[in-house]
Write a structure and sequence with these properties.
By secondary structure, the chain is mainly α. Helix content is 57%, strand content 4%. The chain has a three-stranded antiparallel sheet with strand order 1-2-3. Helix 5 packs antiparallel against helix 6. The chain starts with a helix and ends in a 16-residue tail after the last helix.
């Protein structure tokens, strides 16, 4: 069974030319499935029935795997079994009539306004790296751009006089996003005092650089964000996307138009942006329940019947 799996992964890599991380992801999901089958004493892929796959998917769910993870695992199995059938390794494809489980949408993690303020005030602006960290965090929250867009910015993509940033998003689609005065000030200080010292006379076109004077990477930004969040005592998991989520939610909380937020985020479909309206509704409901005296059912006071 391992040999046939390796044939399939080679096929994905060589013949279909899929990205290395995609091949790796398929391989990881299928090896986990193979490990499960061996525990159940299976010795061939052709002996696996549809019901066995359903049991395995249910097992993944019970282990706390998300709907998207279970769906991805099933997609890997489907593709693999199509390959086995096409190559004549099996007679019947047990995945043919299987329905893909619907992945429930999780509401994104959002920082409170106070948490954002604490995080953005944390960098030590007495150092070049601190000036850079401050500028990156302020810019990310001010614009809601993706991390890939942030680290891909060139110096000329930021127009501090007009207050706009030019982003190159998914599918190489270009958009202009407004830039607030606080973020603009942080950028000016970084460009004047931080970036020249970090460049070390290197000719680098990207706006943000690391301590070696080279282009900042996604991993590099992830590390600095975690460092700043820990120092600021931000509880819970925070990712580079957290500031993007917070940007959108705080705009909608304060009455921003959904279409305008969609355009600033670079979403092709407004349904993607609408998830943030669910967050604002949830927050509104909590405020209401915490504050309104008759929002919750109260028990009768003891001491006799009401007259």
């Amino acid at each position: 069974m391992e040999k046939e799996l390796e044939f399939y992964l080679d096929y994905l890599d060589v013949e279909r030319g899929l990205a290395a991380n995609t091949v790796e992801s398929y391989g990881r999901d299928l090896r986990q499935f193979l490990s499960y089958l061996r525990e159940q004493n299976y010795t061939s892929w052709g002996a696996v029935e549809k019901n066995r796959i359903l049991v395995y998917m249910e097992l993944l769910t019970k282990r706390g795997k998300s709907g998207s993870t279970v769906s991805r695992s099933l997609a890997a199995m489907r593709s693999f079994y199509r390959f086995l059938a096409a190559e004549g390794y099996i007679d019947v494809d047990p995945t043919l009539d299987l329905d893909t489980p619907r992945a429930g949408k999780r509401l994104p993690t959002v920082l409170s306004l106070n948490e954002v303020e604490i995080l953005l005030q944390n960098p030590d602006t007495g150092t070049p790296a601190g000036l850079r960290d401050k500028a990156m965090l302020e810019l990310l929250y001010a614009t809601g751009m993706r991390v890939s867009e942030l680290i891909g910015l060139a110096v000329q993509d930021v127009n501090l006089d007009s207050g706009f940033v030019r982003c190159l998003g998914k599918g190489n689609k270009e958009r202009l996003v407004p830039l607030g005065s606080v973020a603009a000030t942080a950028l000016r200080e970084y460009l004047a005092e931080g970036r020249p010292k970090m460049l070390r006379n290197r000719d680098v076109k990207t706006l943000f650089v690391n301590h070696h004077g080279r282009k900042m990477t996604r991993q590099g930004f992830w590390k600095l964000l975690k460092k700043q969040a820990q120092e600021a005592h931000i509880r819970g998991e925070i990712t580079p996307h957290t500031l993007r989520h917070s940007f959108a939610t705080h705009l909608l909380d304060n009455g921003a138009d959904l279409r305008a937020v969609q355009e600033m985020l670079g979403h092709a479909d407004i349904s993607t942006t609408q998830i943030y309206t669910h967050i604002t509704r949830s927050r509104m409901r909590k405020v209401y329940e915490d504050a309104h005296p008759r929002a919750k059912i109260h028990t009768k006071p003891s001491g006799g019947e009401a007259k």
